[in-house]
Amino acid sequence: MQNNQKEHLYKILVIGDLGVGKTSIIKRYVHQSYSTNYRATIGVDFALKVLNWDSKTVRLQLWDIAGQERFGNMTRVYYREAMGAFIVFDITRPTTFEAVTKWKEDLDSKLTLSNGKNIAAVLLANKCDQGRDMLLNSSIKMDQFCKDNGFVGWFETSAKDNINIDKAANCLVKYIIASENDILKSVVPDTISPQLNTARNSTCSACFKS
């Protein structure tokens, strides 16, 4: 029983439009590798990252969800039991940023924690090695966008140059653990899994304080 208390498995979604670099981010984070030849993800792919976190073993099950899936019906299945999410956009393609709010709305409408709160989500402004756009030149505006849309923080990232990916992941894990602790204080332990809603109703930020 004691060993179980020291190990945690968290499912993390990696979502965003097609071609924003979700697979590249995961490959860099998990395998410390990068390629320009990744094929587009079909449906969903998986990867596992193991961390040592405050004397605990934390296993992150990363779900790489294809960019076109927001337009299908399978995301409800893919989202089930996730504790956190990265939503990714490509800073060189403004339309992928415009889609961020749609991804977040889709996520929040289909998945909540057992205490009714949304899961922790971090916004990744990817491909920052390719330059900056006007949006990212105003970190205050990005901070406000994240607060308005329920993100716990945002980071400029580059899978190619390995910029801020570990920092972003650590930010998300911190919030996931805090969310889990909040749930444990308010409900019995065997109900802490996230539940699907039954009806549809760097220059980087520091993690926002809750």
Describe, in plain words, how this protein is organized in 3D.
32% of the residues lie in helices and 25% in strands. It is built from seven helices and eight strands; from the N terminus they run αβαββαβααββαβαβ. Strand 2 (44-53) and strand 3 form a beta hairpin. The protein is globular, with a radius of gyration of 16 Å. One of its GO terms (molecular function) is GTPase activity. InterPro entries: P-loop_NTPase (IPR027417), Rab29/Rab38/Rab32 (IPR030697), Small_GTP-bd (IPR005225), Small_GTPase (IPR001806). It is a lipid-anchor. Its main location: membrane.
- Give the termini distance in whole angstroms: 31 Å
User: What proportion strand?
Assistant: 25-35%
- Using the alpha-carbon principal axes, give the shape: globular
The tally of helices reads 7
Low-confidence blocks of residues: 198-206
Q: Total strand count, please?
A: 8
Protein name: Ras-related protein Rab
GO molecular function: GTP binding; GTPase activity
Keywords: GTP-binding, Lipoprotein, Membrane, Nucleotide-binding, Prenylation
Membrane topology: Lipid-anchor
List keywords for this structure.
alpha/beta, six-stranded mixed β-sheet, single chain, 7 helices, globular, two-stranded antiparallel ribbon
Summarize the structure.
With 210 residues, the chain is of the alpha/beta class. The chain has helices spanning 2-5, 22-31, 75-79, 94-98, 100-110, 139-149, 165-186, and strands at 7-16, 44-53, 56-65, 84-90, 111-112, 120-126, 153-157, 195-196.
